[in-house]
Amino acid sequence: MSNKATLVVELLGYWHPGTGRGDGVGADAVVNADADGLPILPGRTIKGLLRQAAELAANAGVTYWSASTITEAFGTGIGDAGGDRVQSLEESRFLTEGGRLRVASARLGKTLADRTAWVSAARSEEGPDLLAAMRTTLASTALTDGLVSHGSLRSIEAWLPVTLYAELEWANAQHAPPWAALDEASQLFVRSVGSGRNRGLGRCQVSIAVGGIQ
Questions:
Q1: Which residue of 1, 10, 35, 195 pairs with 18 in a disulfide if CB–CB is 3.0 to 4.6 A?
Q2: Who's near 59: CB < 8 A, 6+ residues apart?
Q3: pLDDT score for 26
C-alpha cells in the first residue's frame, strides 16, 4: 500500500481559518491565506483535527485506534509538568517524540496542474478580483435583553465554500499505513474546521484517498 494519501476537505459553508489579526480598517479578524492570497488550511491545524478524531474514535471503541496507535501516528503530546507553564511547555518539547504521520497544508487543486492553474490565476491581472470574490465579511453582535450590547459589533472575513486537498505521508512505515482507519475516524468526527465553529462556520465533510497529489 502507498505510504501517501490525500485528505479531501469539502467546505459546506463560510469558513474562517483565523490568523488572530485584523486589517485595522475593515474586518476585526482576517482569514488565513498563502503567499498568493489563496485559501489555505495549515498542516498543523489539520493534524490536530485528525488526532482529535482518532482520540474520539478510540473512546468510542472504533477498531484500530488506541493509546499506542495514536502515539505511533501523531507522536507524544506536550504535558504540563507543573510550575511555570511557559517554561514547562518549552522544556516538554524536547521530551516529546514525533509520530509517523506527516501532514501538508491543505490547498486548492486536486492535482499539481490544478494548483499551478490556481496560482497563475491569482497572479494574473484579474487575480485581485478573483480573490475578492472568494471571500466575504460577516458581522455579528452580542445581545443583552434582546438589545445590541454597546461596542459589541464585530466583523470577520470568511472564505466562501471550496474544496481543499492535503497530502498525507506515513514515514518510516514498518507496516501498511492505516489510511482506512484514519478515513473512518475523520469522517465520523471531523465536522468543522477553523474558528467560529460554535457559530456554524466551517462545516465540512472530509475523506482520505490512498495516493498522494500528482
A1: 195
A2: none
A3: 44
Burial code (b: 16+ CB inside 10 Å, e: under 16) for 146-158 equals: eeeeeeeeebbbb
Half-sphere exposure of 189 (CA within 13 A, CB side): 21
| Residue type for position 136 | T
pLDDT, greater one: 6 or 76: 6
Q: How far apart are CA 184 and CA 181, in angstroms?
A: 5
Write down the domain spans for the chain: 4-18+34-126+161-210
> How many angstroms separate the CA atoms of 60 and 146, rounded?
40
Residue of 102, 101, 99 lying closest to 68 (CA atoms)? 99
pLDDT at 152: 47
Give the rounded distance of the alpha carbon of 41 from its chain centre: 5
Beta strands in 27-109 (DSSP E): 40-41, 101-103, 106-108
Nearest-angstrom CA–CA distance, 40 and 165: 10
Q: Hey, how many other C-beta atoms are within 10 angstroms of the C-beta on 83?
A: 9
- Please state whether the predicted TM-score (pTM) of the whole model is above 0.90: no
Which amino acid does the sequence have at 18? G
Cα(33)–Cα(158) distance, rounded to whole angstroms?
11
Burial of residue 54 (number of CB atoms within 10 Å: 0-12, 13-18, 19+): buried
Is the distance from CB of 48 to CB of 58 less than 8 angstroms? no
